Amino acid sequence: MTHPPVPALTTHLGYWLRMVSNQVSLAFAKRLEAKDVTVAEWVVMRELYDVETLAPSRLADRLGMTRGAISKLAERLIAKALIARDASPADGRAQTLRLTGEGRLLVPELAALADANDAAYFGHLTPAERKAMEDMLKAVAKRQDIRTIPVE
Amino acid sequence: MTHPPVPALTTHLGYWLRMVSNQVSLAFAKRLEAKDVTVAEWVVMRELYDVETLAPSRLADRLGMTRGAISKLAERLIAKALIARDASPADGRAQTLRLTGEGRLLVPELAALADANDAAYFGHLTPAERKAMEDMLKAVAKRQDIRTIPVE
DNA sequence: GAAATATAGTTGACTAGGAAACAATACCAA
DNA sequence: TTGGTATTGTTTCCTAGTCAACTATATTTC
User: Fold this and answer.
1) For residue B111, with 0-12 CB atoms within 10 Å meaning exposed, 13-18 middle and 19 or more buried, which class applies?
2) Domains of chain A and any CATH numbers
């Protein structure tokens, strides 16, 4: 009783993309769990790593999250003593976020987990294949003017 | 004060994959919104489309979701009158889910949205490029024994 | 310089999922 | 046939987001 035939989900590139992406992210999340850090927290920490300080609202823009989400995310990272929040001297509304010493020390460890995860999933591809995939994904991103850092 | 240099997030293929995948899924979700359906609901409906009836637990396996999540998802679809739930005559614990007439009529419309979304993101790739990407993703999926349908 | 407007961050209500405890039923083994 | 175990689906509690209302401070405009 399948009236009009409908192509399978698997005919869409988006389907495969999502399936693989989900698994890669999930596996990465599991690795991070050993360090008691989520993917979103990792991205924030990595952003802060080469920038000294950053305003929450800038972070929201960069990660494509709402300011509310960043507010709560920052709160969690502060509770873990991985980042710190300072009032802006210039603007009474504004704040800046920065890594604590502890947080800064953790980033290279987390980066190693990210490397390992990427290698586990894509390490078997030849350099040419990797480059082809990366180029295609970059082209799609550019074409659609995608610029936010994927958090989840 | 960036002590040890850490490679940028963008050096990972997983980063690009997630960025593009997130945007493709988000755009698809927005299209589905016009029909008042979520991506997860669409996947369930598409699964039911060529199968007559399906047990919730089978659905959970196929979609890689918990039975609890399927329970709630089914409840939402039933509330929208897009699927129906019947008690299994053979097994007092079991149920089966099926599309309603209305639900079945909706599937081809939703499939058209899926096609359009895929085309919007990947239509500009040459057939060879599309195939290369699909093959690589399939290979990664196969290598990791990924078999669940990506819902989100 | 006062009033309107804009911006930064927080909060509360809501959503969709996971994990684990649970109830009901089925299966199995002695 | 009865007692233990397995399985099905539901429920409760938790998490991490969104959205929209809110507070406080800045900026602009007249």
Assistant:
1) buried
2) 12-143 (1.10.10.10)
Residues of chain B positioned with their CB less than 8 A from the CB of A111:
6-7
pTM here is 0.91
Nucleotides of D under 7 A from a protein CB: 7-12, 16-21, 24-27
B104 φψ region: left (φ > 0), alpha (ψ -120 to 50), beta (else)? alpha
- Tell me, in Å, how far CA of A67 is from C1' of C8? 9
Instruction: Give the ipTM of the model, two decimals please.
Output: 0.89
Q: Give the tens place of pLDDT for each residue, B101-113.
A: 999 999 999 999 9
Burial A45-66 (b: 16+ CB within 10 A, else e): bbbbbeeeebebeebbebbbbe
- Condensed to tens digits (0 to 9), the pLDDT of residues B6-48 reads 888 888 999 999 999 999 999 999 999 999 999 999 999 999 9
* Chain B residue with minimum CA distance to A148: B19
